[in-house]
Amino acid sequence: xxxxxxxxxxxxxxxxxxxxxxxxxxxxxxxxxxxxxxxxxxxxxxxxxxxxxxxxxxxxxxxxxxxxxxxxxxxxxxxxxxxxxxxxxxxxxxxxxxxxxxxxxxxxxxxxxxxxxxxxxxxxxxxxxxxxxxxxxxxxxxxxxxxxxxxxxxxxxxxxxxxxxxxxxxxxxxxxxxxxxxxxxxxxxxxxxxxxxxxxxxxxxxxxxxxxxxxxxxxxxxxxxxxxxxxxxxxxxxxxxxxxxxxxxxxxxxxxxxxxxxxxxxxxxxxxxxxxxxxxxxxxxxxxxxxxxxxxxxxxxxxxxxxxxxxxxxxxxxxxxxxxxxxxxxxxxxxxxxxxxxxxxxxxxxxxxxxxxxxxxxxxxxxxxxxxxxxxxxxxxxxxxxxxxxxxxxxxxxxxxxxxxxxxxxxxxxxxxxxxxxxxxxxxxxxxxxxxxxxxxxxxxxxxxxxxxxxxxxxxxxxxxxxxxxxxxxxxxxxxxxxxxxxxxxxxxxxxxxxxxxxxxxxxxxxxxxxxxxxxxxxxxxxxxxxxxxxxxxxxxxxxxxxxxxxxxxxxxxxxxxxxxxx
Length: 567
Fold this sequence. Notes:
By secondary structure, the chain is mainly beta. The protein folds into five domains: 17-105, Immunoglobulin-like, CATH 2.60.40.10; 107-217, Sandwich (Immunoglobulin-like), CATH 2.60.40.1120; 224-316, Immunoglobulin-like; 318-448, Immunoglobulins (Immunoglobulin-like, Sandwich), CATH 2.60.40.10; 451-563, Carboxypeptidase-like, regulatory domain (Immunoglobulin-like, Sandwich), CATH 2.60.40.1120. Helices cover 4% and strands 44% of the residues. It is built from three helices and 41 strands. The strands form eleven sheets. Strands 19, 20, 22, 23, 24 and 26 form a six-stranded antiparallel beta sheet that branches. Strands 10, 11, 13, 14 and 15 form a five-stranded antiparallel beta sheet that branches. It has a five-stranded mixed beta sheet with strand order 29-27-34-31-32, with no helix packed on it.
């Protein structure tokens, strides 16, 4: 293995700066002018570099350092296309890329808000909360709610909504400064048609379609107040204040989260306009360069009266430090191949969704974001809420593969059988993080010599490919059966083609098989630490199919034909 601080720095000399260009289009491929485009490096704070598209939908952001970027576009009335439920990985880009971003026209919910006498309720805020996305799952990406005030006729129109199921409410959730709406902010929310949260109407929304007559007969019920005091005893500097997050919990499942603010030196916080129900209250502070401190969620029940005297104490979130190591190959076929750049390598912590309680505020898991290593390969994963984690590594170098992810056994937790002086396979096992934990020694090794496999699914004549067809690769050697980094899955394209890259050289069983309709995140589930039973079943299937292929270091296999028998 190479010490990157010495020998291989010559391979880590990127260009000084560059640009990312692209185009923003709608679902028909037509250009979208004046779209706001953000180009932001992973691990950075703030909006990044922002520009707007020209009349042809084109954009360019120059002067960029050679690191991994996320690129997004926003324009009123449009929304991002839904994420593929079989992939949890968002795309990322590097300097020199040309990006095509597609936005689709969002759905619309419109209606009126009137009093019991039929008079318009003017300037009341109306909220549309997403309960489930277009796949019937709790929302994980994008904006979970949108709001618009009513006009002088009591009419509201909320646009740019992603496909999904929503509820709509008017009023409540105070602490806003618009004096025209102050009266309504202290009321409990009224849900369409004229209900409390328990009886709210669920509204189905589709992108590009308008749902009308979602009218609300405003009740004007008095809301309650949730108040208390939050402090950060671990702070070494005077914080700029604390954010107070209020999360609604319904039927044991976390719903929306809204935030209030406790200014520095104040007596505490107070949130008005709260209806009866169950809530979690969480305090949060943030210090640039240090990270986030968070209190444990405090469950409260509002039942016909104010809730006061809540005390919240923040604790530092966990962190993991590590490094990316590169291992070169001496195989002649691999000489002269492009090495990975640390700045283009993305390391992401993923929490155990099965272990995380459904009633926990979901924003907790968005605090631990992807990061990129520094010029020496060192990185820090910050703001990790207590829980179990695994790690995803993505990089841009065709002839390299992910060889291992390891932790010293003295720091890894949740593993029972590792000898004291050996490392733990952090790809195969969960890593448990507690509040304030400082875990070190995570080593991610990328090795040269990767192969690629491109091909086509072969079916009997006149047979069509089924939906959600996947190609799987499983190592032939039984001693590698639990090396999860040598297991691969990829959804087959509509034309039957597939392309698997960054494959460790070796012998593999290959199979094409469909996923069940209730199966989701097929690709990532294949490597989950607690999916050993599913891996055993897959191995039995590939061994029975007896389709073997050997991949040599830095070999590119093209036009490979993989048989599939349509049931």
